[in-house]
Amino acid sequence: MTRTTADRSAVRTLLRLWPYVRPVRARLFTAAAVAVVASCIGLVIPLVLKWLVDGPVAGHDPAGVWLGALCLLLLGIAEAVLFGIRRWLVARPLSHVEAEMRAGLYRRLQRLPVAFHDRWASGQLLSRGTTDLMLLRMFLAFPLTFLLVNGVTILVGVIIMLVQDWRLGLVILGPAVPVMWTCAVFERRYAQVARRAQDQVGDLTTVVEESVLGIRVVKGFGRHRSQARAFRELAGRLRGTELRKARLLATIWGVIVALPELAIGAALVLGTVRVADGELSAGTLVAFLSTALALRWPVDSIGFLLAMTQEAATATERYFEVMDEAPEDAGEESGEGTAPGAGVVGASGAHPESGGRPTPVPGSGPAAGGRPAPGSRPAAGARPAPAPGSRPVAGARPAPVLGSGPVAGARPVPVPESGPVAGARPVPVPGSLPAPRAEVCAGDGIRFEGVRFRYPDAAPGSPPLLDGVDLHIRAGESMALVGATGSGKTTLTALVPRLYEVTSGRITLNGVDITGIPREELRSRVAVAFEEPTLFSATVGENVLMGAPDGAGKPELDRALAIARADFAHALPQGTDTRVGEQGLSLSGGQRQRLALARAVVGRPEFLVLDDPLSALDVHTEAAVEAALRQVLADTTALIVAHRPSTVLLADRVALLSGGRIAAVGTHRQLLRDNAEYAHLMSGEREESR
Question: Can you state the percent helix, strand and coil of the chain, rounding each to 5?
Fold first, then answer.
């Protein structure tokens, strides 16, 4: 992700900001014009001084002196007012530009595939959305304008000085060549150091975030000293980089300040001699030196303006490294701002079994191929609570099209408290929630046909994690998926809602290839609950209803909580309106898992994928949840990752995943009798050979 900046053109990089700046270009151009006028007014002051010295002062005219003083005062006030107007013109539009860029980055992060989030450290993404965008706003507000303003000011000032006395003007221009050479060298070196510093800020942010989210582990194992040591090491590297930046700035500032000052000193001596010889008037010398002094600020500011420009170019480069990534719905018709994972409930920081995928070293940045540490952030695919004023999160099932036949997943509305009326198939009311099915819709269920999968960051030539998986889950059937740890069970379940793309082969839902189904529709039909659930900093009700279509309310919430045996939610201080806090850590593991299960079933999904959903429950709660789940599974097509016989018994059939393939399919009793590997996994005996 971090690429060299040695040959990067800062101008070409910054030009990529134009689409964001274009809507406010009128105010920016006006602000620049106002600033140019203000700077040029400042250059008029030396000319007034020349008139004062050669006129009223030389002629002993008090009235003329007062007039000149009034002119100087008015010019100073005009300059100050114009600079104030410039600031007013840019403040609001640039805040809007920053907000739009931040919103665009967030939308893109939501639409990027899970494989992208596996590779990138969360701190690197956070720093791009905060520090980098702040640098861009500062650049657009100040350096962008004043690079133009100061350039015009220097040009006009030099012309004025050459007109007044070309010999003194050439003396002032003497340092121009060494100053420009110094700026060119500085720009190249500073760009590299600025990139390193901003990447190190991202690394430091990652360590802080992981330490805060994993504070229970840090304290539980007494690792606060080692975490503090890792933080100090990264902070020390960042400090060293910042000192390197300071040394570069000090060098260029020293050159830019010293050489012009020497030139001004030489012009003063030469001008004084010429005044004494009568070749130059005192007023001209005063005006010349005043103009030269007025140019000190534009010249002296070149160093830090170039520094801020390079930092902005680096920030732009880092920003577009994310924005240039292809979203997972590229080429599909999708509403703007639709988050990937709409309808995929329970997505968590738990990582699919990867078969030995590399892990990033803290402080090394988002190394390609590395997967983020567990708990570092909510995994893509989980839907966060919608922001106020945002568009509804996708997840509602599409209404049936007239003449197209029954829509998969459409369910009849039963008579309340009485179940479905025999033989009646009422038409769903537009905008209403789908009700439980009286019978499973005819279809082919879920089919895996020759599915092969290798993680995008796997080593070249490494064997695929899944190699030729063939499995058919009939419509209305529940299939348990059993296999050893690391066999790829979680990965296989993640392929159904297209959190990952198959390497080869295909998966079909009711005979339709999932690659031909828009992700929004696919994830409205497939609900997923992972083993380690992620809850958001929202209320219990909001967390559960993330898995429901738009318009779901208390009845659907209460039904889902009852199925998941999450009635504890009603006993919380504010009931289902209680906020669970970040990651839901105010709840126990079993409570979080039951809420994630409720989120998976609240939308009455047509297809249900459960990744060991009862692993954190005690025996009695597990039995109660299983009893309720059997009713749900009777009306859906389900794939359940199971590690315990009690979970396996929820399913109609069992598939054994071994060696990247489906080794056996049958009922629990059949496999116990006929398959030694399955019997071994279910026995709970220690695997000595693994």
Answer: 55, 10, 35
How far apart (Å, rounded) are the C-alpha atoms in residues 611 and 341? 16
Backbone angles phi, psi at 657, to 5 degrees: -100, 120
Q: Which residue has the tokens 């170019």?
A: 313
Q: State the maximum Cα–Cα separation within the chain, in Å, rounded to a whole number.
A: 120
Give the C-alpha separation, 72 to 48, whole Å: 7
Question: Is the pTM above the cut of 0.85?
Answer: no
> Sheet of 607-611: strands edge to edge?
526-529, 607-611, 637-641, 478-483, 653-658, 661-666
Which residue bears the tokens 């020497």?
262
The string of DSSP codes covering 406-468 is PPTT--PPPBTTTBPPTT--PPPPTTSPPPPPSSPPSS--EEEEEEEE--TTSPTTPPPSEEE
545 pLDDT above the threshold of 50:
yes
pLDDT digits (tens, 9 = 90+) for 480-518: 999 988 888 989 998 999 888 899 999 999 989 999 988
661-673 pLDDT, tens digit per residue, is 999 999 999 999 8
- pLDDT (tens digit, 9 = 90+) per residue, 176-220? 888 888 888 888 888 889 889 989 988 888 888 888 877 777 878
What are the φ and ψ backbone dihedral angles of 508, each rounded to 5 degrees?
Answer: -125, 145
For residue 669, count CB atoms less than 10 angstroms from its CB and return exposed for 0-12, middle for 13-18, buried for 19 or more.
Answer: exposed
